Amino acid sequence: MAAVPTDLLYSKTHEWVQIEGDAVRVGITDHAQDSLGDITFVELPKLGTSVKKGGDAGVIESVKAASDLFSPVTGEVVSLNDSLESAPENINSDPYGSGWLYTVKFTDKSELDSLMDYEAYEKYLETI
Questions:
Q1: What does the pLDDT read at residue 3?
Q2: Which residue has the higher pLDDT, 4 or 102?
Q3: In whole angstroms, how far apart are CA 82 and each of 53, 85, 88, 102?
Q4: In this predicted model, what pLDDT tens digit does every residue of 48-88 receive, in sequence order?
Q5: Structural domain spans, the chain
Q6: How many CA atoms lie within 13 A of 73 on its CB side?
Q7: What is the third-level CATH fold of 9-108?
Q8: What is the rounded distance in angstroms from the CA atom of residue 1 to the CA atom of residue 23?
Q9: Do 38 and 92 form a contact (C-beta atoms < 8 A)?
């Protein structure tokens, strides 16, 4: 199992969150990208779109499957990783770095409390 970064928060749908002031950067975990296989396409939410915690935020496609992306927080999409249009494989090679997906300016900071820290996420991975 790959190392789970200790400075991020995690959802049960395998998104990670990095807090950046009043916003969060979102990506999928190493476990998720490994399960999907070679990623071939990513459909991100549009800039300025409102997303809801647990709601649809795009689609990710691989040679194995297509999977919905879910937003870990409620808010407005304020930036996108445009490089994924031409290089979706960055998610496979660097899911916690150049493979990030989008940034959301959150409306309710308390929603972060329902996300898991790295220890809880590692334990969660053992159960699935």
A1: 73
A2: 102
A3: 22, 6, 10, 9
A4: 999 999 999 999 999 999 999 999 999 999 999 999 999 99
A5: 9-108
A6: 29
A7: OB fold (Dihydrolipoamide Acetyltransferase, E2P) (2.40.50)
A8: 29
A9: yes
